[in-house]
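Sequence in, structure out. Go.
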Amino acid sequence: MARARALLRYSATRLGLAPVMLWLIATLVFLLLRVAPGDPVDAVLGSRAPAAAKAAMRARLGLDQSLLDQYLDYLHGLIQGDLGQGLINQEPVSSIIGRTLPASLELSVVALVVAAIVGLSIGFSGIARPEGKLDLAGRLYGLGTYALPPFWVAMLVQLLFAVSLGWLPVGGRFPPSLMPPQGSGFYLIDSVLDLDWTALRGTIRHLMLPAGTLALLLSGTFTTALRLNLRRTLRGDYVEAARSRGLSETQVVLRHGLPNSLLPVLTIAGITVASLIGGALLIEVTFSWPGIALRLQEAINQRDYPVVQGIVVVIAALVVLVSVAVDLLVAALDPRIRY
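Output:
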């Protein structure tokens, strides 16, 4: 009962801090965009536009107001769920995010699942013979993939499998000769629901290179985390007690070692979601993947304040929600955690 109350209090604290985190991030983004070099009016009208046209555009966009008034209007819109309109095409920011976010989520989820399967398999494979050749190979794999530059790996994969061998498309999300499936924006799900196997095949072919590259870069984190935690767990007193009761090494690893080693890995998986943002940006740019990271890069180049602010706030909200969910899940599963 006491643990349940403590867990409830911890959950309320973490959930209460989430809006504060989002407010701090939103404020930081607002201030950084205002001190960044470049004028959004010049991005819309061009630097040679008449001064009167620039003044009229600045007034229409609210950029002639004081910094405090702009900030209060910005917060008021966020509270109401209004992310504003893009400066370049006057499209609502929520529509831009709704169109590009599913592509990024589809890429990230597939990459994260593949990275977890590959990384955990390699990390677990060296347990049978610690310090052996397989264990050394897993260690080198974990360190090597973690240190690889994403843009360099993406270009190499693109040159090898798309340009030289011609096995897979060089970029894009869907074959240009076909009509994309309509619905949720997740092409894998929509293709299956429509029973459109041609669309599903085209979606998978375009997804393999960017998702595989991102999964390769992330898998080393899972390999290293499982390997270190599993080795430390297998040296615990309760594991030695299990061995003394006559349990086989396989039973010791599967029943006692692996479950306790996966809890820290679950925490790392939540942190990996944040690293997906930086990795996905480079992957989306290299493979011309029409996701939210690519749209963010375009908005930054165009000095499109509302689009940058809206995308960053939405990404931050997703990262905070995933982090809070992982923290609460680990706290609920691990009785050793004190609140």
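Check: DSSP finds 13 helices and no strands in the chain. The two ends are 14 Å apart (CA to CA).
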